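Appendix B, Record 12. Input sequence as logged:
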Amino acid sequence: MKSYNGGMLREESPVSSAAIGHWAGRCYNRVRSTPPPPPRSNTVVPADVPQLLAALTAAEPAERARAAEQLSRLGPHARAAAVPLARACGDQDEEVREWAVAALEELGAPPVADLAVLASLLADHSADAGYWAATLLGRLGEDAAPAVPALASALSGPERR
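Logged structural output:
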């Protein structure tokens, strides 16, 4: 049997719909019976945070980006990395900056102990680092009240007008 398809004459396949259904059923059963893959060996756990913090200051941009990426997978478990990640937003490498932002977006509120360092980052030369310092201070809510003068100073600086 011949049919016209997209400007070409082609021969129809003699395969029946029953044969196609049988083949699809066999594929489905094979997929269903396949065991799940083993857990990935590069799974990140909260215990990895100290090593990842050290890697955020490595000389190689790829290593810094990999550390920020892995911290982004930890979400709130990476709270101890709030300040180093905010600093990484000022990194010269774009990939490092993007992964640092991704990690900070998932982080939640930083530890209250980071308040003074975050307040000092408000005046950082990198606008992104200053932005994330202000954002993290905001996530602290009322606990960030001591940082209000530093925030007001950063907002009224000559480069902000």
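Residues 17-33 form the longest helix (17 residues).
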